[in-house]
Amino acid sequence: MPRKKKLKQLKQIDGKAEPSKPMTLDQIWGETGLSKYGLSDVEEYKNYINNLNRTDIHNHALEVGIIPVDNMEILVARLEREFIRHLSSYQASNKAEVKQKKISKEVAKILSEGR
Questions:
Q1: Dist CA 5 CA 51 (whole Å)
Q2: Is residue 27 a part of any domain in this protein?
Q3: Residues 6+ apart with CB under 8 A from 114
């Protein structure tokens, strides 16, 4: 049975959008991730892929480093997955640890009433 974490060990995550920090040397030198695909929106990329014919999709797959397969559904899914993976590598959060705010005894008492 897993041990329960104590309240002091838990971390609260806020919903703030934090600017990403550079993860590679290319990003430090100003690479934004647009050079490989030319797009930065998933829906825009899906529309681009859907407007290509079979030959163009195979050529695009080779350009981005994916071995094309005959099944178009699998190939399109791989391309979309690889595009999302590429975007996520440029959007890592720089917030390693979130500091918890101290709460007053009165607030702690109110929150403990629901137990």
A1: 51
A2: no
A3: none
Query: Half-sphere exposure of residue 69, counting CA atoms within 13 Å on the CB side?
Result: 9
Domain range holding 40? 36-94
Percent of the residues in the chain that have a pLDDT greater than 70, as a whole number: 61
- Residue 27 in tokens: 């990003």
- The three-class DSSP label of residue 62 is helix
Is residue 2 in a domain?
no
| 27-46 pLDDT per residue, tens | 667 666 666 777 778 899 89
Helix (H, G, I), strand (E, B) or coil at 46: helix
Structure tokens at 97: 């640890």
pLDDT in tens, 68-85: 999 999 999 999 999 888
Report the C-alpha gap between 59 and 66 in whole angstroms.
Answer: 10
Residue 9 tokens, joined: 């060990």
The number of domains in the chain is 1
Q: Is residue 48 part of a domain?
A: yes
Token pair 């690889």 is at which residue?
A: 82
- Residue 20 falls inside a structural domain: no
